[in-house]
Design goal:
The protein contains 9 helices and 10 strands. The chain is α/β, with parallel strands linked by helices and 264 residues long.
């Protein structure tokens, strides 16, 4: 179920979007329609800061500082129609510099040519189809511990009061290696962990989600290599205590959770 329309304009909500397959960018399905509809319920942002599962760095975070980021087709084996997609949203070098300022004293590299990967454009295309909202991406520094990513979200929360929509794009559950594709059904651990994570989010109990390794075998199977899970920690960190949480696109199939949420 989609959250109710947000009317407060001085502080933007923060989004986590379960993005699944890049084909969702061009297929007419309920998930794509959900992303599009939620955008109509939110105040229009001045810019988007996207933390995507598909940009990983080591040793330091990086931000896309190009004024015209290209569309990155970081996948293979899909129809030509998907490779033909272009999402020519402008960048925002000033926002990239502001991100670095907020994350100081941790160094953040300003990447002058980095484009938008499918974790960003596959969800933003249905939300802002005219590509007229500037977009900046922040990488996942995989050398940092889990708590750093959550704390980074807390530091970036100030952007919500500056007209910036913070979007985490990944999946709460993402493990395609341990799925029995002969049946195509979701393994038992996938919906179990998805529901457990939602319960902790609704309760405002973020500590177990940050230290997810302590949540047992369902978490280990669901989170797997963690790049799709880490964007969630930024979103949780950017939320404020007591803010409402709304879930939508709340589906689990095979080893992927499409569950998305709005905080605020």
């Amino acid at each position: 179920m989609l959250p109710k329309a947000v009317t407060m304009t001085d502080r933007l909500p923060v989004l986590f979007l379960g993005h699944g397959s890049p084909m969702n960018a061009i297929e007419d399905n309920a998930w794509r329609r959900g992303w599009g509809e939620v955008a109509t319920r939110l105040p229009r942002p001045k810019a988007v800061l996207c933390v995507s599962a598909h940009w990983e760095t080591m040793g330091a975070a990086a931000v896309s500082a190009s004024p015209a980021p290209p569309t990155i087709h970081d996948f293979g084996g899909f129809p030509q129609a998907l490779f033909d997609v272009r999402y020519p949203a402008p960048g925002d070098p000033a926002l990239a510099a502001r991100v670095a300022e907020l994350l100081a004293p941790d160094g953040v590299a300003q990447h002058p040519t980095r484009g938008l990967d499918h974790g960003a454009w596959s969800v933003l295309l249905p939300m802002y189809p005219h590509a007229d909202v500037p977009v900046v991406q922040l990488s996942l520094d995989r050398s940092k511990p889990n708590g750093w990513h959550y704390d980074a979200g807390r530091r970036l929360a100030a952007l919500r009061d500056e007209g910036v929509l913070i979007v985490g794009s990944g999946d709460i559950v993402h493990n395609l290696r341990d799925v029995d594709w002969r049946t195509g059904g979701a393994p038992d651990w996938a919906p179990r962990f998805n529901e457990a994570a939602k319960g902790l989010i609704e309760a405002g109990d973020h500590a177990p989600l940050v230290d997810w390794e302590g949540l047992g075998p369902d978490a280990a199977a669901s989170i797997n290599s963690a790049e799709h899970y880490l964007p969630l920690l930024y979103v949780l960190g950017a939320g404020h205590p007591g803010e409402p949480v709304g879930f939508f696109n709340d589906d689990v199939f095979a080893g992927i959770s499409m569950t998305s949420m709005v905080i605020g």
